[in-house]
Amino acid sequence: MNTPKADFDGCVFEPASLPRLQVQGTDALFPVHRVYCVGRNYREHAREMGLSTREPPFFFSKPADAVCTDAEVPYPSMTGELHHEVELVVAIGGGGADIPLEEAQALVFGYAVGVDLTRRDLQAAAKKHGRPWTTAKGFDQSAPVSAIRPVSANGHPGSAAIRLQVNGQLRQQGNVRDMTWSVPEVIAELSRYFELKAGDLIFTGTPSGVGSVLPGDRIDCAIDSVGALSFVIRE
Ligand code: MN
To answer: How many domains does the chain divide into?
Structure first.
């Protein structure tokens, strides 16, 4: 049987397009390639998750199309415990593997504010049974991200307050200087496992104070000198 020739550049259907983030102060867009995340990069958060603070951070990932910029994010299916984790997001503008620590910072295009939305009940079950975190971390619209502030505009936030409010109530408060792995260390370490490419986003971990959100809740978060992000959880 002959398959009719499709009209999408030789593909059998139109390829999905990946998310693009606004670059603050310009009309330019940042096309997302991959989304990497660091787990347990703030000691106080490791402690609140019931873990030894001597355990080193580690990596997991989300699909690129989990990134969203919508003012409303749906409450995901299959969970009764959706948690917020506000994080500094590093937007990579260059690439490479085995990047030396002293060259890592030069690969940063800019920074954004992101929330690593987590089905905490599914994550707890996955941890208990030694299973992957895919359904806990990588669901649709699990990665709201703000516009990117380019390094060319504002440099690197070595020390900056990071906070998250739910319905006006402060839930998370910290400082990005308290990360166990600094941004250059995260980039250098990640590049030992994966070849980094322009368009990669790295969620660098969350400070303490994670907690549940419910349909109708409004989330406002900010990182000084980087930006702000607000969205509502929709039923
Ligand atoms: Mn996280």
So the answer is: 1
